[in-house]
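User: Amino acid ABC transporter ATP-binding protein (PAAT family). Structure?
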Amino acid sequence: MSEQASAGSVLRIDGVHKWFGDTPVLRGIDIEVARHEVVALIGASGSGKSTLLKTINLLEGVDDGQIHLGETDITDPRIDADSIRGRIGVVFQHYNLFPHMNVLNNVTLASRQVFGVKRAAAEKRGLELLERIGLADKAREYPDRLSGGQQQRVAIARAIATDPELLLLDEITSALDPQLVGEVLDLVHELKAGGSTILMATHEMSFARRVADRVVFLKGGKIIESGTPQQIFDAPREEETREFLSRLRDPLA
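Assistant: Predicted structure:
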């Protein structure tokens, strides 16, 4: 790992291991994400993608290895987890909007409660974001009045409202009806164009090809292969990568 690459890193994962009981879930993960880079994690269910994202957001501890957010070792047990989470935006597959709050309050909650932004300033920023994602007219609606795609776009707006250093996206389209997937993926593409730094777990291979700068294939908690989308999808070097992609193209193979 070069010093130049490390200096520009938003996220650096070095030799991370994680066990659940006697079961290894992450086995020596090394990943570096540069500023403004989009990295896609692909792999079958149970490959370790979601667990890796949870260790970065400190929802799960690691058993060995280190994770740095910028210059901060976030695996240091003395770290203030809430302060680290305040630097990371996270979007889950099931929206996780607060049902008792309207859309605008959902988007502005962290700005107001965690960062102490005055309500007027937070709401101005929130309305700008809702305008950007085409939902300004839904600002006073409650989540149950929105479609799944609209709720997920609100969840993304909430995640970026505090200008996080890193955005984690965990299978954000898996709970959506197919006709709603496109609008969410278009928004992520806009975030990339705007310079966001993103680490995402996805099962949408066409989306990973379109938006990612780098694709990382995990199997059994290990990185099998990492490369550009073109290299991974068109000319994978590893047999396990080729098998995984061929099964996606032909599930009955």
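The two ends are 38 Å apart (CA to CA). The beta strands are 9-20, 23-34, 38-42, 64-69, 72-73, 88-91, 166-170, 198-201, 214-219, 222-227.
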